Each structure stands twice: as C-alpha cells, then as structure tokens.
Amino acid sequence: MSRPCNEAYNINKCDGNPCKNGGTCNNNKVAFTCSCAVGWTGTFCEVESAARCPIGWDHHGNSCYLFSKDTQSWNNSSDSCASVGASLVAIESQTEQTFIQNRLRHEFASFMWWLGGNDQFVSTDQTWYWVQTEQKINSGYTDWHRKEPDNPGQQHCLAMRKDFNYQWCDDYCPELHAYICEMTLGDLDFIG
Ligand SMILES: [Ca+2]
Ligand SMILES: [Ca+2]
C-alpha cells in the first residue's frame, strides 16, 4: 500500500484495516502498527511465522513437548498436562519416538516417564488407547519393549523406561514417574 507523505495526522491509518490474516490495527499519529494473530508476522501480518512453543517446551514437528521432571501418578500427570492445555504425549511415529529417545538420553531426572496411553480409558477390555487422540495404540505405530506389556489386567498405564532404551512398557498407574506433555501448535492460541 502507498502512504502519501503529506497525509494529515488526523487520518485514521487503520481505515479499511491494512492488517491481514486476523491482525488488529493500532492507529498511531504517524503510522499504524499491526498486532498479528498467532502464526503471522510482518508489517501487515502478511508473513506466515513459525508458531513458537511456550518457554521451557521443546519444539518438534507440529507439537510442543514438556519434559516434566516432577514425579506424579499417571492420573496426576495427565491432569497436570491438561491444566496447561496439553495432554500426555501420544507417540505416533518413529520420528516422534526418536526425538523423545534422544531428548531423554541426556535427562537423568527419572528412570521412567509416563506417556499418554491407558488400557482402561475407553473400555475395560485391556485395549490400549492414546488419551490425546482416542486412537487404538496397537492399530498404529508402536515401540513396545519385547517383554511388554507384561501385566495385563494390573498395569493399565503406558510408560517408557531408561533401561529399555525408552521403549514402552505397561506400569502400575499410581507409580510416581516423570511425564511428557504434548500440545500441537494449532492448540497454542488457547494459552496465548
Ligand atoms: Ca504426538
Ligand atoms: Ca510392565
């Protein structure tokens, strides 16, 4: 857009809203500025920006991850993730599993980490589901350790273990472990 240099100060620079993609125009005396919606940047919010994860969260693919060293039961871990607009992680590809394995390799806070799988979540027939997506775990990507799950009917919650090279296992849900929250970048506007 062109702005003539003799433009009067009392003209509302925001007329016609020059800010694109849901941006809000702020009318100043000499110019306007755009406050851009999440995911947009540039003078007119015309440039798509990489959405950013909250401070303390790791970015991978289209998600942000919180590796919480706070040890909790599975239920409390799940609630903690929900309280920040996330959920316990659903690992749905080798790429995602590898990212988490590499991230935990240098993390000594906990021997085990809770994941967002549970076999009593949808039904009590010991079918494993991701709570985040409500998809059957064993219908998609899995990385169970070869000896796991080894306690059907007793261990209803999904975890990963350091001595299994962070492959998956079932465990007793009240056990206290560190946990991993995941939120997708599309959910970020919920937390501002
Ligand atoms: Ca995921
Ligand atoms: Ca087990």
Automatic annotation (TrEMBL):
Q: Which PROSITE patterns match?
A: ASX_HYDROXYL, C_TYPE_LECTIN_1, C_TYPE_LECTIN_2, EGF_1, EGF_2, EGF_3
Q: Where is the C-type lectin domain?
A: 60-182
> Which residues form each disulfide bond in the chain?
C36-C45
Origin, by domain of life? Eukaryota
Gene3D superfamilies attached to this UniProt entry: Laminin, Mannose-Binding Protein A, subunit A
Q: Tell me, what is one Gene Ontology molecular-function annotation carried by this entry?
A: calcium ion binding
Question: EGF-like domain: from which residue to which, for each copy?
Answer: 10-46
Output a single Gene Ontology CC term carried by this record: plasma membrane
List, in alphabetical order, the GO biological process terms annotated in this UniProt record.
cell communication; signaling
Answer whether the UniProt record assigns the keyword Repeat to this protein.
yes
Keyword set, alphabetical order: Calcium, Cell membrane, Disulfide bond, EGF-like domain, Glycoprotein, Membrane, Repeat, Signal, Transmembrane, Transmembrane helix
User: Per the UniProt entry, what species is this protein from, by scientific name?
Assistant: Magallana gigas (Pacific oyster)
Q: Where in the cell is it found?
A: Cell membrane
Q: What is this protein called?
A: Uncharacterized protein
InterPro entries attached here?
A: C-type_lectin-like, C-type_lectin-like/link_sf, C-type_lectin/snaclec_domain, C-type_lectin_CS, CTDL_fold, EGF, EGF-like_Ca-bd_dom, EGF-type_Asp/Asn_hydroxyl_site
Q: How does it sit in the membrane?
A: Single-pass type I membrane protein
User: SMART domains of this UniProt entry?
Assistant: CLECT, EGF, EGF_CA
